[in-house]
């Protein structure tokens, strides 16, 4: 079993090292987080006095291991009197702790995005503006996104929960939500280096992008085969941007963007195809 500290650090690596840009046809949600959001996602708000183990102090207490898995059990036993309430609280908290490691999968594979219409769910304590829903086998992961006060289309994670297919309330968080947005792609950007990468793209979005690349080459009088088009698609995903002909022709700049062997291999494969077809500016 992972410790609270390990869960905290792993979640921090996923949520705080990167910003995420969730693209739909209507808008782009910019998701950014700091470590003070993590204790709430872990369910620490249900322990002790209100707010005792959330925010700054919650993060500090977990990092200094002043609260551990043993503490969770003891605090639930202390603050919840009946055995049934204790059982339900422990189950809810452990569902969060056991599944936070799958946040990366939520961002890098198919998920659904709902506008959370609070007026239709007035009895719910859920306070998010959007709900990201991801199904993995029998598990359904729910990630709440709340609008930041500091910027337009800037959001933070403010809740996380897991239900299962056989739960009576498995879809209770989104069954009344009528406004659903198809996610076309998700871009992950490293906060420190500002390096971006497309980690999810829908099939329709990829087909539209491929058609755009074909039109770009056709407009330049270039007959590009499928291998070259697929290679450009891979470049676009890896570096999180659309490569125009000017960018494709600048082999030096492409190689300078590479930070590891995999990126160099990707660029080298493209340049080999580019040279093989003699598509450079010297030829056109």
How would you characterize this protein structure?
The protein has helices spanning 4-15, 38-41, 55-63, 69-79, 83-99, 103-108, 203-219, 226-239, 245-249, 251-256, 261-277; strands at residues 18-24, 28-31, 112-115, 130-136, 139-147, 154-164, 180-181, 183-190, 196-201. By secondary structure, it is α+β, with helices and mostly antiparallel strands. α4 packs antiparallel against α5 (83-99), α7 packs across α8 and α8 (226-239) packs antiparallel against α11. The protein starts with a helix and ends in a 7-residue tail after the last helix. It has 11 helices and 9 strands. A 9-stranded mixed beta sheet has the order 7-3-4-5-6-2-1-8-9. The model has no long low-confidence stretch (mean pLDDT 89).
Could you list some keywords that capture this structure?
alpha+beta, 284 residues, 20% strand, elongated, nine-stranded mixed β-sheet
